[in-house]
Each structure stands twice: as structure tokens, then as C-alpha cells.
């Protein structure tokens, strides 16, 4: 497997770093998979998944979002996504899609978003409805509870008083503090990510993962984004023929132990979307690509990709 990194500038002239994995001998791929990683992680964590996709005939691109990975610029800048960060991260994903399209004309592109990346991908679905051939959502959820409004108001208040770049342990705890409770007695603060202890330890040891306290500005924009992506007028802009595959563990607290995932599937189907499928893995936690049954998960993803290769689908 070959690996390269390159950069492009986003609308604010921020350098966005991209990881590209390809087979050792270049040949036209069946399709390209673009990955949008989650909060408090980095694109390079998807190298193992990329290798499996390459063996199946695909190529893989994944950018580090603002405030993450190499794009952050330094460890001290992790967790600071700048002004309007949620929307800007989605915009950068669309720019990367255009870069991929220029490199691979006439080859299908599929977008996989995990966790925060899955919510960015949900926004991508209506803001950039014609750019990709399908969407995969991992570790995701549907419409948030009314408590989200409290989070929006609190984050706005903290940002107004202390500034956008203020690091907020309170907002971090409100967002993640309860996730580990279902797995007591716990070995680490990240047990909710996976049943695979080695993967949890690898996450904790990675300086680009987990330990960063994100800014008040990030949370304000993130919470607003979580509200915006499920507005009726936005959802109606999603193409009805767009294939969507949602997968998660039924013990993932981000997805409400499966309930939030089911609500999302139901919401899309009520919109009249024709190709929405879902798989909940018993006992699986938040990072199904790093779970003890990850080979099964990856095989299911590849099977879905094979099923929804154009031109099998009709017009939107």
C-alpha cells in the first residue's frame, strides 16, 4: 500500500492536510472512499481500514479537519476549529471531493463519516447533494434531545465571556462525561470507544487523540450544527435516490445505545429516501472500525459498496 500526504487551502486559506492511500501498482479503482474522521482523532487512524479497501479494489482519501491532526499545525492548536468551524469543516470535505474528482474523473466517490464526521456528512448530504454516489455513517445519531438547546446557550455564553478560543472542561464533560458510565467498572476513560483494550490504549497513547480540551467556539458551532442538520427544510434537499448505509454498535452511547440510530433511519425513510440501510452490531461500542469484530464490519461495508455501484441507480 502506498501512502502520501498533500495539502489544499480552504476558503479561509487554512492548509488542510490529506492522507491518500493507494495500491502499490496504480490501476483505476472501482471507486474512491473519502473519510471524514471524528472529534479528537486524526485521519491517519484509518490506515488499516484503507488497506482493506485497497485490497478490495478501492482508493482512500481522508483529510484532517480543522483543529485536528496535521491540519491543526501543532499539538497546542488541537481542538480549535476557528470561526464557523462546523460549516467550514463540511466545506473542506466538499473541496476534497473536488480534488478527488479531478484526480479520478468518471469514478464513483463514496463518503464515510464517523462520529463528528458523520454529522458533518449529514450536513454534506443536503449542502452538496450531487457530489458523491453514496454516504456511509458510522457512530452517528438522529435528532438530538431538547437538552441540545441548553448546550447551545451555554457554549454561546462561555464563548462570549471568555472568547472563542477558551478551553472549556465544563463543555467537554457535558458532552462526553456520561459515555463511560454504562461500562462500569471501567479500566480507562475511553472504554466506551471499543471492547478491544489494545485499541483503547492506542487511542489514549496517541497525542492527536482524546486528551485535548476543545474550545468554547468549537462547541458553540458544533451544537448549532447538530440542530441545523435536522431542520426539515434542509432534509428535504437530500436526493431521494442517494444510497445511505448507517452502521453502529448497539452499545454506542453517541447513538443512544441504538435508539438514536434507529430514529435517524426512520427519519430518512419518512423523507422518501429509497436506499437507506442499517446494521447495528450487538455489543459494539463507538468505533466499529476498531472493534473486536472489525473484520465483519469492514466486510459488510465492502459488500454495501459493491451493491451500490453506479449505474445501477436511477436519477435523483
TrEMBL record:
User: Taking every annotated instance into account, which residue ranges of this chain make up the domain Serine aminopeptidase S33?
Assistant: 28-292
So which domain of life are we looking at? Answer: Bacteria
- Spell out the InterPro entries in the cross-references: AB_hydrolase_fold (IPR029058), Hydrolase_4 (IPR022742), MAG_DAG_Lipase (IPR051044)
What GO MF annotations does this protein's record show?
A: hydrolase activity
Q: Name one Pfam family in it.
A: Hydrolase_4
* Plastid found in the keyword field: no
- What keywords were assigned to this record? Hydrolase
PANTHER family linked to this entry: PHOSPHOLIPASE-RELATED (PTHR11614)
Task: Please report the name of this protein according to its UniProt entry.
Answer: Alpha/beta hydrolase
Amino acid at each position: 500500500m502506498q501512502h502520501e500526504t498533500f495539502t489544499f487551502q480552504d476558503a479561509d486559506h487554512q492548509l488542510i492536510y490529506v492522507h491518500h492511500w493507494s495500491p502499490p501498482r496504480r490501476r483505476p479503482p472501482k471507486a474512491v472512499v473519502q473519510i471524514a474522521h471524528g472529534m479528537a482523532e486524526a485521519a491517519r487512524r484509518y490506515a488499516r481500514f484503507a488497506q482493506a479497501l485497497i485490497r478490495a479494489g478501492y482508493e482512500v482519501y481522508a483529510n484532517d479537519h480543522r483543529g485536528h491532526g496535521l491540519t491543526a499545525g501543532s499539538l497546542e492548536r488541537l481542538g480549535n476549529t476557528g470561526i464557523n468551524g462546523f460549516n467550514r469543516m463540511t466545506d473542506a470535505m466538499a473541496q476534497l471531493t473536488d480534488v478527488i474528482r479531478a484526480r479520478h474523473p468518471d469514478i464513483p466517490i463514496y463518503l464515510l463519516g464517523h462520529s463528528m464526521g458523520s454529522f458533518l456528512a449529514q450536513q454534506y448530504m443536503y449542502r452538496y447533494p450531487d457530489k458523491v454516489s453514496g454516504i456511509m455513517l458510522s457512530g452517528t445519531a438522529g435528532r438530538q434531545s431538547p437538552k441540545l438547546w441548553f448546550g447551545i446557550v451555554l457554549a454561546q455564553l462561555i464563548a462570549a465571556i471568555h472568547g472563542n478560543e477558551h478551553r472549556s472542561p465544563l463543555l467537554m464533560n457535558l458532552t462526553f462525561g456520561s459515555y463511560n458510565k454504562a461500562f462500569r467498572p471501567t479500566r480507562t476513560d475511553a472504554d466506551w470507544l471499543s471492547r478491544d483494550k489494545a485499541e483503547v490504549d492506542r487511542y489514549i497513547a496517541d497525542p492527536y487523540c482524546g486528551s485535548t480540551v476543545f474550545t468554547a467556539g468549537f462547541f458553540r458551532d458544533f451544537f448549532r450544527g447538530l440542530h441545523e442538520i435536522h431542520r426539515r427544510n434542509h432534509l428535504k434537499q437530500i436526493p431521494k435516490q442517494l444510497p445511505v448505509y448507517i452502521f453502529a454498535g448497539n452499545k454506542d452511547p453517541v447513538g443512544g445505545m441504538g435508539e438514536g440510530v434507529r430514529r435517524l433511519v426512520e427519519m430518512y425513510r419518512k423523507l422518501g429516501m429509497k436506499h437507506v440501510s442499517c446494521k447495528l452490531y450487538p455489543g459494539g461500542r463507538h468505533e466499529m472500525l476498531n472493534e473486536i469484530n472489525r473484520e465483519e464490519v469492514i466486510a459488510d461495508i465492502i459488500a454495501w459498496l459493491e451493491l451500490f455501484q453506479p449505474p445501477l441507480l436511477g436519477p435523483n
